[in-house]
Specification:
The protein has one domain (8-56). The protein is built from three helices and no strands. It has helices at 2-14, 17-35, 39-56.
Amino acid sequence: MDALLQELDTKLRQWQLDITQQVRQCLAEIIELADQDALDILRLRLVEQEVLDLIDEPETC
């Protein structure tokens, strides 16, 4: 976990401010869901987004 936190700290210093803010917001949401024992909701959202991304992809014929 320490290595992960160290890498995150390094990246937060390297990324542009808007990216850093988005990452911080996502992490806050993950922590909140974990505190509520509701991470399965996050997984469902990720799967939903993957499906939407597939639908949006242009057809290759």
